[in-house]
Amino acid sequence: MERINKTQQERASRNYGEDATLIREGGYRSPSSYLMQDIEIALTLGKPILLKGPAGAGKTKLAETLSHTFGQPMQSINTSVDLDAEALLGFKTIVQKEGRAVIEFVEGPVVQAMKKGHLLYIDEINMAKAETLPILHGLLDYRRMLTNPFTGEVIKAHPHFGVIAAINEGYMGTTPLNEALKDRFVSFSIPYIEGKELEHLLVSIYPSIDESTKTSILSITKELRILAEQGRLADEAASIRSLFDVADLSFHMPLLRAYRYGLVEKMSDTQEKELVYELVQTWIEE
C-alpha cells in the first residue's frame, strides 16, 4: 500500500465545509463542494490526473490553481500532432565552451518537472499522435521513471512530481486515448459552472459590473448552454473563456459589440453565428 507523509496526509484530509466552492487562490471555482478537494487528494497521493471537459470549462485554470495550492511550479506542454519526443524530453545542441564546440542536452518540460518536483501539465493530450505518448508510460505508473533515449539517463521522479493532463473529448483533431495510457490516470469530469456559482464567479472577478450587464450575460450564457446541450451549437459557444472576453470588453464598448468580438466572430459555422447573434440581440437593448 502506498504510503504518504504527514504533509500529504494533512493535504488529503482538508475539511472544505460549506465554502468549498469559493474561488481558490489561483482562480478556479469548483462547481461542487467536493470536486476540487477530491482532485487535490488524488494528486497528493501521487496519482496522475486526467481532466475531461468542454473547451473553456476552466481545466487550465484548475491546473494553475493546483500549482498555487501545492506551492509547485508547473511545466506546461501544449499538445499537437507535431509533438515528438524532443518536445517532451529535450534535445541536443552544440554550444561554444572555452573556444571549442561541445554537445549539450537541453532538458525539456518532462525531464525538468521530474527532476525538480514540479507539476507537469499536458494540455489536450488526445491531440498527440498515438506513437508519441508511450514514452510517458513509465512515469505515469508505479515506476515513476523513464530512460531518456537521447542521453541514456535513467530518471527517477522527485517525490513531489505530479502529472495533470486535460482533454476535450470528441473535438476535431482529437483521438481517443489508448487504454494503456488512460488506465494510468485518475479521471475527473470538469463541467461548466452555472447558476448561482457562475454569478458569484462573475461578480467576484468584475465587482463593478452593473446589474443590467450582469443579468444579460448570465441569461445569454444560460440559453447558450441549453442550445449546446441540444446539439444546436458547439460547446465553445457557452465557454467561460468567451464569457470573460465579453465581460472584459463590455467595460469599454456596448455589450452587443462585446458579444460580436468576444464570441460571435470566433465561431466558424455561419448558421451558428447567426443563431447566437439573434439570441444575444433579444437580451440587449441598444
Would you kindly provide a written description of the structure presented here, covering whatever features stand out?
There is one protein chain. The chain is an alpha/beta fold and 286 residues long. The chain has two domains: 6-81 and 114-189, 3-Layer(aba) Sandwich (Rossmann fold); 195-283. It has twelve helices and nine strands. Strand 3 and strand 4 (100-107) form a beta hairpin. The termini are far apart.
Attribute tags:
286 residues, alpha/beta, Rossmann fold, 2 domains, 5-stranded parallel beta sheet, two-stranded antiparallel sheet, 9 strands, disordered N terminus, AAA+_ATPase
Architecture blueprint of SSEs:
Layout: H1 6-12, H2 35-44, E1 49-52, H3 59-70, E2 74-78, H4 85-89, E3 90-97, E4 100-107, H5 109-116, E5 119-123, H6 137-140, E6 145-147, E7 154-156, E8 162-167, H7 179-182, E9 186-189, H8 195-205, H9 211-229, H10 240-250, H11 255-262, H12 270-283
Parallel strand pairs: 1-8, 1-9, 2-5, 5-8
Antiparallel strand pairs: 3-4, 6-7
Helix pairs in contact: 1-2, 9-12, 10-11
Domain AAA+ ATPase: 45-196
Protein name: AAA family ATPase
InterPro entries: AAA+_ATPase (IPR003593), ATPase_dyneun-rel_AAA (IPR011704), CbbQ/NirQ/NorQ/GpvN (IPR050764), P-loop_NTPase (IPR027417)
